[in-house]
């Protein structure tokens, strides 16, 4: 069992519920657990009836469960401030304004939030000393993009790095005869910075491939199943196999003696859902590890424990 | 001053001239050529870093922005080079001293 466990899936299928239940289960088994919510619309606070922030906060009533909610907005702002501070130290005041504008612009691009989120992801993976880190991810599209970032950005950084090295190398060559080269490779802050970034991406790629397990949450309906099918395929494409499917929101079956409009409706609904679950079991490679029935109330408190018991996902310590 | 001294002085002058001519015609343009090429590479690097300066959105501008503090002077030179370059021919042509 890997140290990092991701729960993904279409929006609204109950990823937060399932990942909270899983974190609850891990904590119950005595593992030091951290639940990380990466969905910008955090809802872990509602499950545990407690507010969380960007730092791991212990959950009331648990010995070994902490929750953190990543806030990309804050990460973007921090990044911006960090650069501006450095700018003041490095650059002559004459051009600061010009560059300031460029930096502001870079932090408004659509990729900025994703990049910030991704950086926080890496921080968490690098720094946490928990036995198990559970990620409650944002809906499928966003997460998939996020997970493909290491490879994609790694390639880009490679290109930048080789260009920079080529130009610095040429500057050094043009300085033959004891002249001072305009730039040198030794101590070039740009090359150092790019290498550092590259190393970061490689770490993320390696960790995701070797130490992470992915579960997808689906509902027993056509749309959710289709999206799950696409997710399984694209994750496999990136060498990130899905370990199992969790089917959430199954309709409870009425007692056999009940005969009424409600009971008939439920019986029909249950039959359809059985069909869907069978489809999931038969046509999908990853096994269905849990089927969770719809609850009357929101899953929180004691109900979380019930749901956790329905999850057939091992929680043993990593070897 | 005897003859050998005058010859030595003459040879020194000739050598200096030759060195100057060699420097002016061969070695200096060679340095310049390499330096221009380095500048071209740097332009490509900066363009890859900051395509949004030309209105092309960049997926990594969030990361390249953190290079800006170190690129202050280069950024300025780069912008100047980009604006006063009429054509590739003009840029490449200026490397030869016709």
TrEMBL record, chain A:
InterPro entries: ArsA/GET3_ATPase-like, ATPase_ArsA/GET3, P-loop_NTPase. SUPFAM superfamilies: P-loop containing nucleoside triphosphate hydrolases. It holds the Pfam family ArsA_ATPase. GO terms for molecular function: ATP binding; ATP hydrolysis activity. Residues 3-307 form the ArsA/GET3 Anion-transporting ATPase-like domain. Belongs to the arsA ATPase family. This is ArsA family ATPase.
UniProtKB/TrEMBL annotation, chain B:
It comes from the Archaea. It holds the Pfam family DUF7990. This is Uncharacterized protein. It comes from Halorarum halophilum.
């Amino acid at each position: 069992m890997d140290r990092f466990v991701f729960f993904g899936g279409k929006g609204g299928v109950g990823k937060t519920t399932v990942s909270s239940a899983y974190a609850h289960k891990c904590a119950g088994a005595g593992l030091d657990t951290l639940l990380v919510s990466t969905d910008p619309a955090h809802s872990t606070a509602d499950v545990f009836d407690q507010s969380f922030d960007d730092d791991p906060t212990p959950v009331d009533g648990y010995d070994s469960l902490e929750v953190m909610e990543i806030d990309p907005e804050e990460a973007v702002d921090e990044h911006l401030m960090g650069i501006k501070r450095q700018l003041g130290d490095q650059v002559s005041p004459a051009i600061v304004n010009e560059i300031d504008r460029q930096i502001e612009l870079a932090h408004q691009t659509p990729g900025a939030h994703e990049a910030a989120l991704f950086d926080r992801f890496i921080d968490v993976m690098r720094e946490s000393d928990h036995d198990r880190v559970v990620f409650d991810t944002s809906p499928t599209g966003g997460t998939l993009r996020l997970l493909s970032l290491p490879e994609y950005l790694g390639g880009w950084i490679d290109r930048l790095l080789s260009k920079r090295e080529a130009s610095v190398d040429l500057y050094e060559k043009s300085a033959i005869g004891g002249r001072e080269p305009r730039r040198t490779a030794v101590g070039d802050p740009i090359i150092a910075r790019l290498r550092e970034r590259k190393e970061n991406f490689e770490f993320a790629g390696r960790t995701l491939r070797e130490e992470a397990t992915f579960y997808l949450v689906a509902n027993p309906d056509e749309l959710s199943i289709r999206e799950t099918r696409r997710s399984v395929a694209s994750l496999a494409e990136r060498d990130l196999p899905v370990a199992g499917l969790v089917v959430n929101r199954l309709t409870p079956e009425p007692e056999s003696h009940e005969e009424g409009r409600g009971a008939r409706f439920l019986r029909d609904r249950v039959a359809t859902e059985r069909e869907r679950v069978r489809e999931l079991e038969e046509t999908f490679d990853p096994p269905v590890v849990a089927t969770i029935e719809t609850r009357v109330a929101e899953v929180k408190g004691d109900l979380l424990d019930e749901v956790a018991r329905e999850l057939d996902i091992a929680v043993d310590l990593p070897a | 001053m005897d003859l050998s001294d005058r010859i030595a002085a003459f040879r020194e002058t000739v050598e200096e001239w030759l060195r100057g001519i060699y420097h002016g015609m061969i070695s200096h343009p060679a340095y310049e050529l390499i330096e221009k090429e380095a500048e071209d590479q740097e332009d490509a690097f900066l363009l890859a870093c900051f395509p949004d300066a030309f209105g092309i959105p960049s997926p990594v501008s969030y990361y390249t922005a953190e290079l800006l503090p170190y690129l202050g002077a280069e950024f300025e030179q780069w912008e100047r080079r980009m604006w006063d370059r009429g054509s590739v021919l003009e840029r490449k042509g200026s490397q030869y001293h016709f």
